[in-house]
């Protein structure tokens, strides 16, 4: 399954490394990535691929915990739900 990951927070060193390393540890493939800094705030959007749908909740929980340790907000959403919301 594919999913959308968003990361938002104060800009500082190690955010991209932390998130990409954790995704790798969870066997999640980064398909596309976009990042920018807006007025001191770091923002990153990723399209990722998760091998098994049942693995999604583990990835979500793990990323939320990582966000707390990195002091950023990390959200993940199933791409199918994201697309359905934007077709209404």
TrEMBL record:
It holds the Pfam family ACT_6. It comes from the Bacteria. Residues 4-77 form the ACT domain. CDD domains: ACT_1ZPV (cd04872). Belongs to the UPF0237 family. This is UPF0237 protein RsY01_279. The lineage of its organism: Bacteria, Bacillati, Bacillota, Bacilli, Lactobacillales.
């Amino acid at each position: 399954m594919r999913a959308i990951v968003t990361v938002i927070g104060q800009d500082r060193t190690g955010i991209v490394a932390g998130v990409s390393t954790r995704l790798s540890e969870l066997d999640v493939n980064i398909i596309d990535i976009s990042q920018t800094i807006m007025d001191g705030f770091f923002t990153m959007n990723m399209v990722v691929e998760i091998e098994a749908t049942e693995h999604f909740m583990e990835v979500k929980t793990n990323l939320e915990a990582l966000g707390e340790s990195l002091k950023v907000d990390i959200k993940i959403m199933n791409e199918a739900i994201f697309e359905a919301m934007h077709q209404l």
